[in-house]
TrEMBL record:
Keywords: Membrane, Transmembrane, Transmembrane helix. The chain crosses the membrane at residues 90-110, 130-147, 154-175. Residues 19-41 are annotated as: Disordered. This is Steroid 5-alpha reductase C-terminal domain-containing protein. It comes from Pycnococcus provasolii. Gene3D superfamilies: 1.20.120.1630. Pfam families: DUF1295.
Length: 271
């Protein structure tokens, strides 16, 4: 792995390099790509750096996502019960899909993506806003239903490929997020170019794409509806996520340009 190139900048949340023992402290830096923090005082944040209080009727996208992901395992069992299909395909889907949801909730309460909790874009204002955003990511619930509705025998190679891809994707997704959170917690305000970021610029996006492709394989790739979650994720990632993040990272100037020229965006280099 290459050594980190450090470039000081303002992040979405000014931070301590270490936390105090108090349950409410100043937040660690948010993921790269966010601007300087403007708004609540440090006392408004919990020990993980998440905004802890909101005006009545408001919450954050991060909290919504925790609720959404907590439903993924029950959704898998509900799909099997609804279709009456308790076979290998829906069972494997329920295990993988449910595990993703559980890990998301655990991760969000150990090393959260602060961009989902603290930015103005992540603010949810009112029941209608909550319902609309919840419905927008409801496309992922297609996976357990399509797997349960698919009565074709699951080929062993498809089972192996989907499990392998899902686990590899999870490695890049969860571990990439962990590196970013803890590296910026203890060494805030710098451009991360070591670890995962020495091989691929956006390891978390890579991981998610691998995981959704694996679930598409498992639910039945010949069904066009199985590709809707991948299409949605690709649109969000390629059209919004990566461009916005790299536009913000361009503040690092020459160091960012050198890193971008050297490291691929989504296909990891092996050396």
């Amino acid at each position: 792995m290459s050594s980190s190139l450090h470039a000081r900048h303002g992040s979405a949340n000014s931070a301590f390099s270490t936390f105090s023992s108090s349950s409410v402290v100043a937040p660690p830096p948010a993921p790269e790509g966010n601007g300087p923090r403007e708004g609540p005082a440090p006392s408004a944040f919990d020990a993980l750096g998440r905004l802890a209080s909101f005006p009545p009727g408001q919450t954050s996208l991060g909290r919504l996502l925790e609720v959404h992901k907590a439903l993924w395992l029950p959704a898998g069992f509900a799909a099997m019960a609804f279709t009456g299909n308790w076979g290998m395909r829906p069972a494997l889907m329920t295990g993988l899909f449910g595990a993703y949801g559980i890990v998301w909730v655990l991760k969000s309460n150990i090393y959260p993506d602060l961009g989902f909790y603290n930015t103005e874009k992540s603010r949810i204002k009112g029941a209608v806003d909550y319902a609309v955003k919840f419905a927008m990511i409801g496309v992922y619930f297609l996976y357990p239903y399509l797997a349960a509705a698919n009565t074709a025998t699951l080929h062993p190679l498809a089972a192996a490929a989907s499990t392998l891809g899902f686990c590899l994707g999870g490695f890049f997704h969860w571990a990439g997020d962990a590196q970013r959170y803890f590296e910026l917690k203890y060494n805030p305000n710098h451009l991360i170019t070591d670890g995962f970021q020495s091989h691929v610029r956006h390891p978390s996006y890579l991981g998610e794409i691998l995981m959704w492709l694996s679930l598409t394989t498992l639910s039945g790739p010949l069904n066009p509806m199985s590709w809707l979650p991948v299409a949605w994720l690709s649109m969000i990632t390629l059209a919004v996520g990566i461009p916005e993040k790299e536009k913000s990272l361009s503040r690092y100037g020459k160091k960012f340009e050198e890193w971008r020229a050297r490291v691929p965006a989504l296909i990891p280099r092996l050396w």
